[in-house]
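Weekly structure sync, notes
Attendees: PL, DS, HV (note-taker this week)

Item 1: DUF3017 domain-containing protein
DS walked through the input record. Source organism listed as Streptomyces tunisiensis. Sequence as pasted into the shared doc:
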Amino acid sequence: MSAERKAPDAPGAPAAEQSPEDVTVRDAVSAPDAEGAPRRATRRFPLFTRDTARPEGGGRAAPGDAPAPARQWPILAVLLTVGLGLLLTALDVFRVGLLLIGAALVAGAVLRWTVPDVGMLAVRSRFTDIVTYGGLGLVIVLLALMMQPEPLLQFPWLQDMLHFTVDS
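Item 1 (cont.): predicted structure, written out as tokens:
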């Protein structure tokens, strides 16, 4: 037998010969593998995914002993407001329904910015979520305000631009 097999505490000893009781996990670099032996974690993506990372939105907006709807109140508030806006839009109150949908998305951006644990409202990074929710909400609100007939918001240059493109 080689010298490495006789002395399991040697620096070059195979990790499989150490018992799980002798393993000391100090940080993510020495995280144990399936057999319990410490292994060096790399920053490279594995060829085969064996586990998934916890998403950023996996945090709770309420304590863990609260029921599921209470833990996810930010996404439920946004979804219920969007649902009410869609209902109003279906009932022929277009402008109010679209304003409610846009306001719900802007409120989602504000919640994502101010509340540290927003649950499933967090989909991407905080910056990307804020820009996406806020941008889409603002565009929907502006389009609802410019909607015909009798628009509440008018841009004269927009009408000139439309006539320029249609007339040419």
